[in-house]
Input
Amino acid sequence: MKGMIGRKLGMATIFVEDGVVEPVTLIECGPCFVTQLKSVENDGYQSVQLGFDEVDSKRLSGGIRGHLNKNNMPGMRVFREFKIKGDSELEEGQKLTADVFENGDFVDVTGKSKGKGFQGAMKRHGFGGGPKTHGQSDRQRSPGSIGATTTPGRVLKGKRMPGRMGGDRVTIQNLKVAMVDPDRNLIGVRGAVPGPVQGIVVIRGRRKQ
Output
C-alpha cells in the first residue's frame, strides 16, 4: 500500500543524477502505525487506518487510549484511513516508515491550505478590477455589478464575491518523489504541497496516470 501520513517541513533544492537542480518539498513521512484494519464483513468497506505523531498517552482521550492499547501501540494524535482493494499484507500494530515510497514514484498529496482570512474578489477569485481612469476613485478593486435588475431581481446563488479564503482541503496530484531518506523518515516531492510548514499532509499513490 502506497500511503502515509506526514508533516510538511518546508522547501529545498536537490541535485538529481544528471546534475539538474530540482525544487522539492521535504515531508517527514512517518513513522506510522497500523491502528486498525477494516473489512467489508465488519465495517461495510475495506480500509486501513494509520496513526501518526506520537504523543504521551496522558494527553489523549480515554477512547483513543483504549483503541491504541488493543495492540500495545504508543499514543498518537493524527489518524487517517486509506482504502485498499483485495488482501492486505498489513497487520494491526505494524510500523511503517518512509521506505514505503521509492525514487521515481508519483503521489497525490492532500493537505489543508493556508487560511488567509476575509479577502476581496480580486485576491479570492482573480478578478481584474475596475478601470483605473475616467473618474474612478474608489472602485478599482470592486467586484462590479453583482446582478441584474427586475429579472431576476436577486443575486444568484454561487456568485463569486468577497469572503473567507483558504483553510480548504486541497489535493495536488502527480507529484514525483525525488528523494527518499528512510533513516530520517524524509521524502522530497518535486514541487509545492498545500498547507503551512508543520502542517499535516496525507501522501497516497497517484490515482491518475
